[in-house]
């Protein structure tokens, strides 16, 4: 009976950690700092700070009083040949501005218009949003994805269940 109780507690702990924690996103505000972005936990304060920074490039960023949901975003402006949304920035492209961070969903970041008419005419954008932890940075290929951690945790729980039974 004690083994089943311990197993249930461990299982609830693995499942509960995902629901108890807030969304975390990579964060940076220019091409240089985006080489090694930091991680931020999404709150209304971090999303409002992102909106304030984004309003330096865009004149139509709406004010959001607050929300219970957030999303991670990766917004890159570049010059050079236009690339498809699913492709990565190529060697013939030059990054002019980059932003990673946590935003309110109501911002609709990928639909914003640049304020500067020269930038609007010469810059292309590469924009993506996502809703899982640390999903907005396409760093080195050797990094683990969240599914790899889920697989490892599942194997550990199965082995623990086998040992306890």
Strand order of the main beta sheet, please?
4-3-5
Task: Please compute the radius of gyration using only Cα atoms.
Answer: 20 Å
Q: Which percent band covers the strand fraction? A: 15-25%
Low-confidence stretches: 16-20, 140-145
Walk me through what this model shows.
Keywords: Membrane, Signal, Transmembrane, Transmembrane helix. Residues 1-22 form the signal peptide. This protein has 165 residues and is an alpha+beta fold. The protein has one domain. Helix content is 33%, strand content 21%. The protein is built from four helices and five strands; from the N terminus they run H-E-E-H-E-E-H-E-H. The chain has helices spanning 2-20, 44-54, 117-122, 146-164, and strands at 24-27, 38-41, 71-79, 94-103, 124-130. The strands form two sheets. The chain has a three-stranded antiparallel sheet with strand order 4-3-5. It has a two-stranded antiparallel ribbon with strand order 1-2. Helix 1 (2-20) runs antiparallel to helix 4. Residues 16-20 and 140-145 have low confidence and may be disordered.
Topology:
Layout: H1 2-20, E1 24-27, E2 38-41, H2 44-54, E3 71-79, E4 94-103, H3 117-122, E5 124-130, H4 146-164
Helix pairs in contact: 1-4
Which terms summarize this structure?
165 residues, alpha+beta, 3-stranded antiparallel β-sheet, two-stranded antiparallel ribbon, 33% helix, signal
Short structural summary:
By secondary structure, the protein is of the alpha+beta class.
């Amino acid at each position: 009976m004690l083994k089943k109780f311990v197993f249930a507690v461990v299982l609830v702990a693995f499942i509960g950690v995902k629901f108890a924690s807030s969304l975390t996103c990579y964060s940076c505000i220019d091409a240089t700092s985006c080489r090694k972005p930091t991680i931020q936990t999404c709150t209304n304060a971090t999303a409002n700070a992102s909106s304030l920074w984004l309003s330096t490039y865009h004149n139509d960023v709406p004010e959001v009083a607050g929300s219970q949901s957030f999303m991670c975003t990766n917004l890159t402006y570049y010059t050079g040949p236009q690339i498809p949304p699913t492709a990565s920035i190529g060697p013939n492209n030059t990054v002019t501005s980059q932003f990673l961070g946590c935003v309110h969903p109501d911002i609709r970041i990928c639909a914003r218009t640049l304020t500067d008419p020269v930038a609007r005419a010469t810059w292309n954008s590469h924009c993506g949003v996502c809703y899982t932890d640390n999903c907005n940075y396409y760093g080195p290929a050797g990094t683990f994805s969240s599914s790899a951690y889920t697989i490892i945790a599942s194997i550990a729980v199965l082995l623990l269940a086998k040992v306890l039974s």
